[in-house]
Amino acid sequence: MVKSRTILIILVLILLFTPSANAENITNAAFTVSWQPTLNFGSLIYLDIYDSAGIVTQYAYIELPAAITGTLHFTQYDEINQQPQIYETTAFDENTLTWNNQPAVGSAIDYNWSSDTVVNLTNPSKYIVLIVTGVDVVAWYHSDDSAYPPYFIPSPIPPALSIINNSKTNDTSISKIFLNNSEPITFFVLTNNENMTWNWYKDGILQSNNYDNYTTSWSTGRYHYVSVNGTNANGSSNLLAWGINVYPAMVTTTIAALNETPYNELHEAMRNKDMPALVMATTLPFTNLIGAFFYAIVWFMVFVMLWIKQKSMNIPMVIGIIFGGLMISFLPAQYQLVSVALITLGIFAILYVFFKGRG
User: Fold this and answer.
1) pLDDT at 313
2) How many of the other CB atoms lie within 10 Å of CB of 121?
3) CATH class, range 17-154
4) How far is CA 212 from CA 129, 191, 203, in A?
5) For the segment 306-348, what is each residue's pLDDT rounded down to a tens digit?
6) Under CATH, which number does the domain 161-246 receive?
7) What is the C-alpha separation between 194 and 183, in angstroms, rounded?
8) From CA 224, how far away is CA 168, in angstroms rounded?
9) 3-state helix, strand and coil shares in percent for the chain, rounded to the nearest 5
10) Looking at the chain, which residues constitute the CATH 2.60.40.10 domain(s)?
11) Could you tell me which of 29, 26, 103 has the C-alpha nearest to residue 65?
């Protein structure tokens, strides 16, 4: 029974004093004593921080692995009746440090004690000094020469991403990337962390692509964008983004050639001063559009305007017969028979009016 309890106690001690995998032991730490200003205490297994209203003063100097945010862990050596204040300082050597040659105390740093033996440091100096103030206040910790040295656990550093290149410009460009319609492009990024989960976004839509590169294309011509960030146990990374301009798809429909015959004939008639040809050329845009029916419209318009103006059919009929005989040959075949009938009817109408007037 006694043996089992001994083993259990040993296991508990091992668990209590075994730092995590990313912890770094403190290797440079010592305290100074005001009443023994020339003595060095760097080889002792404890750090004694003491104050007696300025009569007896002891500071503890500690070198951190780096000036980064993290938690500093101590093992209690003896009584702790006040948690120390923490200040910046400068480099020192525990083997030569004394009260007389100790570095100056600097500004207070951001910290908070989560317990008597664990302090959270926010962006500290690499070198710090622990001080207690008051009357007969003290804090005892194991030093770096103890079997239970202080250790520092840096806070997790979120992953950081950087651009390697893209397959189109082959550089780190993030804008003015021009692609043809449906042309593929691959983006490559780099991270300073491992075990990343990648989040690629195409025009704001999350893609299924858990890799440090991404290949895509677009079939619509406009402005598009791609972005990426990553996450792991340390947090989320920065966001990278690219802007891409995609040209519209090329038109494949064949456009009919413009009929320039009317223009060519008009230009030729003007150059040759051929008035009949010039008159005919001016009608070509209309006859090309609606055919010979254009002449019927012209004839009808002249006939109707004369009829309305004269309020009689005589003059329109005479003019219609004269010009109708000339224009009838230009009409489509289906209108020629009707035109002949109208002209004949007009002749009889004129003769009827003439003889009726004489009678």
Assistant:
1) 61
2) 22
3) mainly beta
4) 44, 8, 18
5) 666 656 666 666 666 666 666 666 666 666 676 777 777 767 7
6) 2.60.40.10
7) 32
8) 15
9) 30, 30, 40
10) 161-246
11) 26
